[in-house]
Specification:
This protein is of the alpha+beta class. The protein contains eight helices and 20 strands. The chain has a five-stranded mixed beta barrel. A hairpin with a 3-residue loop joins β1 and β2. It is rod-shaped, with a radius of gyration of 63 Å.
């Protein structure tokens, strides 16, 4: 009786457990046997779980024995229950498709790249697989360039985006072109950013070099300016000719040579002495720290002809000069290069002179007497008539009478004797 009840209880338990087995339910069990066309699972229901080879989702040309071994765990979905032969048929393919569909749906929702393997080509595109799910790549979505022959892509693994998803119609469309285009765009943007960064770096480098060069030139100019001293002789180049003088570059700084400082002699125009681009030696006349102006001289300031002639010529000296200019009031004589004397019309002759050229003309050599001489103010007044005047006979020696000489009558009696005769 106990054995009958035990058997009854066992059958009830088995029936209760079996009632929980539902088609479509996902279960996981271990393999107890591997055959050439199926694997057998231990389901603990008193029934065997059978997965036929076509429901195992075996890739390529592999055999069951290559993939599965006794003791391996497999997750599968119940397809059919057969109480007569005590078996439950399952499908690993369906379980895999369920998981793979979840993955591909997530990839579609998140616009995430997946990798598919191309297995078959047609004229309009290629068929590929994402695990257990077959997808289609239209010819326009295979590459960014024109595709002539889709057969070239068979066997290739391609990264794709899912662009169309309809599980009910088993429609999965993917694009390899979008992945390529996205990478091209990224590379293009990176290249643009790199080129922009390189240009900005180059501009920054050039700017830094220019600023450094400007600072160097500024410092050189400052050093040059600070090194200038009045009386120095410097070498430079004429940069500009003006009516009032010439600008000379001393090596980064320009100074002005005024018309009056071109020569010790009179100069009518700057062009007589200089031209642009000419290299010259000049003398520093003045350096103004506030205005940053530099006054220069082309004439040798260390050999002032007025200072030199001051050591040789004095008032009342008879000298010779050459007429260089004539005005209504007189004439200017060049006594020495850089030294001119003025000869007034009143000093030309004792006679009344109406016109200077009646007595002297340009280039005439004239002997004159120095009436007034002021070398500091560069003034010399001369007289032609005084130079030509006969000197008076000097009787001073005779006017100093000593007692031994007697009277004036005695002194001049011999002279008066000749006159009386």
């Amino acid at each position: 009786m106990t054995n009958e009840l035990s058997m009854k209880d066992l059958l009830e338990q088995q029936e209760q457990a079996f009632s929980e087995v539902k088609i479509g339910k996902t279960i996981t069990a271990k393999i107890t046997k591997v055959n050439h066309d199926e694997v057998v699972l231990d389901l603990e229901y008193g029934f065997d779980g059978i997965i036929p080879v076509e429901e195992l989702n075996i890739e390529g040309n592999k055999s069951i024995e290559d993939v599965y071994k006794v003791g391996d765990e497999i997750t599968a979905i119940i397809q059919r229950v057969s109480e007569k032969d005590g078996t439950i048929k399952l499908s690993k393919l369906q379980a895999d498709r369920k998981n793979d569909l979840a993955e591909i749906t997530k990839a579609y929702d998140e616009h995430r790249i997946i990798t598919v393997s191309v297995g078959k080509s047609i004229e309009r595109g290629v068929f590929a697989k994402y695990k257990s799910i077959e997808v289609f790549i239209p010819i326009s979505q295979i590459d960014t360039k024109f595709v002539k022959d889709t057969k070239e892509y068979v066997g290739a693994n391609l990264e794709v985006y899912v662009i169309e998803l309809d599980p009910k119609r088993n429609r999965f469309v993917v694009s390899h072109r979008e992945v390529l285009q996205e990478r091209i765009n990224i590379e293009r943007e990176e290249r643009r950013a790199r080129i922009k960064a390189e240009k900005e770096a180059e501009r920054a480098r050039i700017k830094a070099e220019k600023e450094a060069e400007r600072a160097r030139i500024k410092q050189e100019k400052e050093d040059l300016f600070n090194s200038l001293e009045v009386g120095q002789k410097r070498h430079g180049k004429v940069t500009k000719i003006m009516s009032y003088g010439a600008f000379v570059d001393l090596g980064g700084l320009e100074g002005l040579v005024h018309l009056n400082n071109l020569s010790w002699k009179r100069v009518e125009s700057v062009e007589e002495m200089l031209h642009e681009g000419q290299e010259v030696d000049v003398y520093v006349l003045d350096v103004d720290a506030e205005t940053r102006r530099i006054a220069l001289a082309l004439k040798d300031i260390n050999n002032d002809p007025w200072q030199l002639i001051a050591e040789e010529v004095y008032v009342d000296d008879i000298i010779t000069g050459k007429v260089v200019r004539i005005i209504d009031r007189g004439a200017f004589l060049e006594i020495r290069e850089g030294v001119e004397a003025f000869l007034p019309i009143s000093e030309l002759s004792d006679d009344r002179i109406l016109k200077v050229t009646n007595v002297v003309n340009v280039d005439d050599e004239v002997k004159v007497k120095v009436l007034n001489f002021n070398p500091e103010n560069r003034r010399m007044l001369v007289s032609k008539k005084e130079a030509e005047r006969e000197p008076e006979e000097d009787y001073s020696e005779y006017l100093e009478i000593e007692e031994s000489l007697g009277t004036l009558g005695d002194l001049f009696k011999d002279k008066f004797k000749n006159i009386q005769k």
